[in-house]
């Protein structure tokens, strides 16, 4: 039987060789580039499959690959030196690494606490030194200058999120309403009409999209979210401070939705300190579906996202820009509400 060939031109591809040999395309690449650890038996099976298909690696592709650093940069802007990585960021890195490692790329992580001007200088140094072949961008901001900078530097890039101003940079868009329509429907169904929203920073594109989605979902039911406040960061400390202010309002909200789970857990603590029961007196909803949400008392209601998969998709988009063959589809599940036990009927 003649092996099926995946190339539209009928010429064999690295994917065909991998399929015939029963290995990944990365294993074929390692065998012919002389990199990585491939057993003699597997290497011979791969070479035999290549001979059967009359396939040879492109000389130009091999030369280009060997001229690369095989490294991708990820610059994370923290609020302070003491800030730790969030569970969401850790999940993103896990997803990125899982795909980069399959293709023998390393991830170079920079934790950044300075202004945008110095961040731009860092990208220029990375490009000039050729330390990275491409970069992963996060935290799109209003007026973001990084997209144009990447083009000026000739640096392949992918943005995890929605770009400011419909920029054509390759990206993973924010997931529709981000599951916040389901949150609004859930709270309205429980009889809540005084619903507060404590979200992310006003200069973050993604935070703005989520805020508008939640307000729009409530507005469709004739309800106005009040108050709607934004943090300077997604920190527990700032969330606690804003929660105190929100709970002092008259009339007091019967439900609060937060920009992430850590903020919601901080808000839950402040509500208890104020003598309120969760969910009898006030309902609390988080965002991101982090593992810690399952262990709160009561269990936190939260919007579950698959951030690991978003990291995998971002890595695949960037690797394809770099000319790599990335197999498989990377479908993204829509965020969904995990109801938990921190929401209940609105108090009378």
From TrEMBL:
GO terms for molecular function: DNA-binding transcription factor activity; transcription cis-regulatory region binding. InterPro entries: HTH_LacI (IPR000843), LacI/GalR-like_sensor (IPR046335), Lambda_DNA-bd_dom_sf (IPR010982), Peripla_BP_I (IPR028082). PROSITE patterns: HTH_LACI_2 (PS50932). The keyword Membrane does not apply. Gene3D superfamilies: 3.40.50.2300, lambda repressor-like DNA-binding domains. CDD domains: HTH_LacI, PBP1_LacI_sugar_binding-like. This is LacI family transcriptional regulator. Keywords: DNA-binding, Transcription, Transcription regulation. It comes from Amnibacterium flavum. Residues 12-66 form the HTH lacI-type domain. It comes from the Bacteria. The keyword Transcription applies. Pfam families: LacI, Peripla_BP_3.
């Amino acid at each position: 039987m003649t092996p099926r060939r995946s190339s539209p031109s009928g010429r064999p591809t690295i994917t065909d060789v991998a399929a015939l040999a029963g290995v990944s395309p990365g294993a074929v690449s390692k065998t012919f580039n002389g990199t990585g650890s491939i057993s003699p038996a597997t290497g011979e099976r791969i070479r035999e499959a290549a001979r059967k298909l009359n396939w040879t690696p492109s000389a130009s592709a091999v030369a280009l690959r060997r001229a690369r650093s095989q490294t991708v940069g990820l610059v994370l802007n923290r609020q302070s030196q003491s800030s730790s990585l969030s569970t969401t960021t850790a999940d993103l890195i896990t997803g990125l690494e899982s795909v980069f490692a399959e293709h023998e790329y390393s991830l170079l992580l920079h934790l950044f606490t300075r202004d945008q001007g110095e961040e731009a200088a860092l990208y220029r140094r990375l490009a000039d030194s050729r330390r990275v072949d491409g970069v992963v961008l996060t935290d799109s901001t209003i007026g973001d200058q990084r997209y144009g900078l990447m083009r000026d530097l000739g640096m392949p890039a992918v943005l995890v999120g929605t770009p400011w101003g419909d920029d054509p940079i390759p990206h993973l868009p924010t997931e529709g309403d981000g599951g916040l329509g389901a949150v609004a429907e859930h709270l309205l169904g429980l009889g809540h009409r005084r619903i507060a929203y404590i979200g992310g920073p006003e200069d973050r594109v993604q935070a703005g999209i989520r805020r508008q989605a939640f307000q729009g979902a409530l507005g469709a039911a004739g309800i106005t979210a009040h108050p709607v406040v934004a943090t300077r960061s997604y920190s527990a400390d700032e969330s606690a401070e804003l929660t105190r202010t929100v709970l002092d309002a008259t009339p007091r909200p019967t439900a609060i939705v937060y920009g992430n789970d850590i903020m919601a857990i901080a808000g839950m603590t402040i509500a208890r300190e104020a003598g309120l029961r969760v969910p009898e007196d006030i309902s609390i909803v988080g965002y991101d579906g982090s593992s810690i949400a399952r262990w709160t008392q009561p269990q936190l209601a939260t919007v579950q996202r698959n951030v690991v998969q978003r990291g995998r998709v971002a890595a695949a988009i960037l690797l394809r820009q770099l000319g790599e063959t990335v197999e498989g589809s990377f479908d993204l599940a829509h965020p969904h509400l995990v109801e938990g036990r921190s929401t209940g009927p609105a108090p009378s």
